[in-house]
Amino acid sequence: MSIEQTLTDQERLAELDLDQLRQLVGLVEYDAGSDPFPVTGWDAVVWAVGNATQAALFYQLVYGMELVAYSGPETGNRDHHAYVLRSGAVRFVLKGGVDPASPLLEHHRRHGDGIVDIALEVPDVDRCVDHARRQGAVVLEEPHDVTDEHGTVRVAAIGTYGDTRHSLVDRSRYAGPYLPGYVARTSVAGERRLFQALDHVVGNVELGRMDEWVGFYTRVMGFTNMAEFVGDDIATEYSALMSKVVASGNHRVKFPLNEPAVAKKRSQIDEYLQFYGGPGAQHLALATNDILRSVDLLRARGVEFLATPDSYYTDPALRARIGDVRVPIEELQARGILVDRDEDGYLLQIFTKPVGDRPTVFFELIERHGSLGFGKGNFQALFEAIEREQAKRGNF
Ligand SMILES: [Fe+2]
After folding, report:
1. 83 Cα: distance to centroid of ligand 1 (angstroms)
2. How far away, in angstroms, is 95 Cα from ligand 1 center?
3. 363: CA distance to ligand 1 center in Å?
4. Cα-flanking dihedrals φ and ψ of residue 162, to 5°?
5. pLDDT per residue over 314-323, tens digit each?
6. What's the predicted TM-score (pTM) here?
7. With bands split at pLDDT 50, 70 and 90, how would you rate the model's confidence at 143?
8. 180 CA distance to ligand 1 centroid (A)?
9. 311: CA distance to ligand 1 center in Å?
10. pLDDT by residue (tens digit) across 203-241?
11. In terms of CATH, what superfamily is 197-392?
12. In CA terms, which of 139, 155, 280, 305 is 20 to 30 Å from 317?
């Protein structure tokens, strides 16, 4: 029985330890031996953006990420620019088309800035692809080796919702800065590390297809259902979405999946599907061990967060629900940070406005204290708070 309890290279590089990861992202021990599709963790979030050269600066200067690798015309890649950025154990790859015929430009025309690939690190690419194929997955790239002077990476890719893919990457025999074809690049100066790890990536899928995609992750990728879900009881009244969560065995990789629900108002998921032009990744939750500092720094650099009405904090039910948290509630209120609690502990969270021009992809910052949830309690609390504000204005 192999109980997995090791750090990924990225986590080691980020000087994280297992205790921190249990706290940050709810890492759990599990038996990888009986997993048909073992996943070590996140490899990278790959974006197609309208201007990767500028976006790379944005993520360095505003989000405090570090540039570590680059590929582009100067390195023999005539199709696109690609900038690899890191914050803690999180890796973003920003790609923008150079050649007018680049498929990245077509992707961007259809979807706007968005996530093309949620790449996962796996110990055995071939075993994963064999299993996925037997379970009916679309194999977009067969397992193959890519080699340069730093070693060999074995990769493959399978399709998931919309135009999104999961690359499967085994980099255990590779020592380069990212992948063959990339060269090391150093970063401009700036304050670093506003977040340490990726907690979850939310997918918005088509109306009525959430359970199908939950089935995809459990059947094809061996993920398990996490307890939290938002059903049509809350959904139709408040949040206009239904949501279930699947997770890899060790819980490093967690995918909440949303579908729109018929509600009082037009669903935010409907809006996403319209403007993204179909299903896609909706938000990335970035785990931080000091959400107050991260929010203060991001706000000072111009990042806009969703506003939380004061009535969310003055509601006596909220105080009863959340109990004691590590800072006075006024500190959270001053920043618009939300709190949720379950039987395991609590979490602090806040959401940014969309990062691109379309009302599609955005970020969440999350600071976990024992809770393995995703903020379900905030759906209802937030919507009720908004309705109380509406009522004050005589519009409810
Ligand atoms: Fe989230």
Report:
1. 25
2. 24
3. 8
4. 60, -140
5. 888 888 888 8
6. 0.94
7. very high
8. 33
9. 22
10. 999 999 999 999 999 999 999 998 777 776 666 666 678
11. 2,3-Dihydroxybiphenyl 1,2-Dioxygenase, domain 1 (3.10.180.10)
12. 305
Are the C-beta atoms of 14 and 68 separated by less than 8 Å?
no
Q: Determine the distance separating the centroid of ligand 1 and the alpha carbon of 127, expressed in angstroms.
A: 30
Distance 272 CA to ligand 1 centre (A): 15
> What's the CA-to-centroid distance between 368 and ligand 1, angstroms?
12
Measured between alpha carbons, how far is 307 from 122 in angstroms, rounded to an integer? 39
* 283 CA distance to ligand 1 middle (Å): 7
Domain residue extents for the chain: 9-184, 197-392
Tell how far the Cα of 389 is from the centroid of ligand 1, in angstroms: 24
Average pLDDT over residues 83-100: 97
Centre of ligand 1 from the C-alpha of residue 366, in Å: 8
CATH assignment, 9-184: 3.10.180.10
For residue 264, report the distance from its CA to the centre of ligand 1, in Å. 22
Residue 3 has pLDDT above 60, yes or no: no
Q: Could you tell me the distance, in angstroms and rounded to a whole number, from the CA of residue 305 to the centre of ligand 1?
A: 14
Amino acid making up residue 239: S
- In percent, the amount of the chain with pLDDT more than 70 equals 95
